[in-house]
Amino acid sequence: MADATPTETHSRFAKFIQNYSGFLSSFVIGAAGLIATSIWQYRQSEIAQHQAAAQQKVAETQAANSWKIERAEILSKNLQVLASQGSTTVDQRYGVLLSLTRGNILDPELAVSYALELGKDNPDYMRSVLSNTADKNYLQLTHAFQLTCLQRFGVAKDVAICKTDKFGDRSQAIADEVSDELDAAQATGKPGPMSLLKDDRQVLISPLTLAWLFEPYLQNLYERRLWNEITRFEHFSTGAQLVAALDLATARTGEFVTADESARLDQFHAERRKWLISYLFGASCDGECKGKLVDVMLSVYGDAQGDYNEAMRKLLGQPRNETGPAVSRLHQRLLWCEVDDDDLVEFRDQVLTPTLGDLLNAPKLDGGAIDDLAGLLAIVPDPKDPKALADWKDALKKLVKAGGDHYQKSFVKRRATAKQERLDPPYAMKKVSFCNAADLTDAAPKLDE
What pTM does this model have? Predict the structure, then answer.
């Protein structure tokens, strides 16, 4: 009986197939047809989708080509207006340029180029166009940011090198636009103009230019005591911290403050002064870097109110192989009178004279550093203030005592040579010599103006 079940079951299954074979055949054929139909419909759907995508792409390409043709026609009709120059066409150029910019007809770089050209005649019109231009290349703005002689040297004279001062209003408008865009970028978490400060090696190519470019923004933060915003700016990169250290050293506004706030401000400036000194003598700042930073500091020396004294003294007390470019730059600036009189007096009395005295009092004399400092003192005027004059004479006495006739003769010879060169400068230096040139303005520059 145990073996009967499989046989019976098998017989029933065979009987079922035998009795319902037609039904099973119809079912299998129907299922296969249904599957085939589904596959066909799916493939037809895919084909239709590909065809629709292709048609859409063709339509988009045709629309883009049509827009390019239309844009080219619009540009060709307005190119003559955009290419014109002079104040007589400034309103017409502004209207056309603003319309083309708002309509995204011009590429950003081209729009900025036309805006910068417009800025020579009307800086306000330029700012309006720049504010309506998306995806600007901020490096392009930096190249157009031309420093005035007041910004470069702390004084402006009637010489050829100061002829570009006529673009000073445009440069100020560029700096103001950068300040506005920095506020907007900080609110959205985007770098914006801060991208210029990402790499400190790029900052060191033109530290003075970038210091003035970001000055309105940093000065505004300082005046409003927005310490957290200043810290965020500094933490963006080493280059940003360098620019902030240079700008904020001259940001004192001179207003009356409470004792607590005065202490807070003193600490604020002391921290940045300490950082600047550490950077100046760090591994990333070579001789060329030191020369450029010295150039920046000398131009606004008085405005720093002593913040640069320690750095300058330490620098000029270093061996000659570390200070060569810095001393050379100082020598050129002092020889050709490229420094404000008040800045020169403070630099001489607070740096040159005391540093020379310290070197001469050292147990081991550094002949190269002493010779460089004596050479710089030889080309600046004698002090008039009684105390400064006494310190100056004392340093010279120590100089003669240390080197005898060598230093004394060298000092006298350098002074005579400087006087003669100033009276009759070489041809290559006539365009840059401020000596005996008329003042263009009596206003001394500040990084906070």
Answer: 0.77
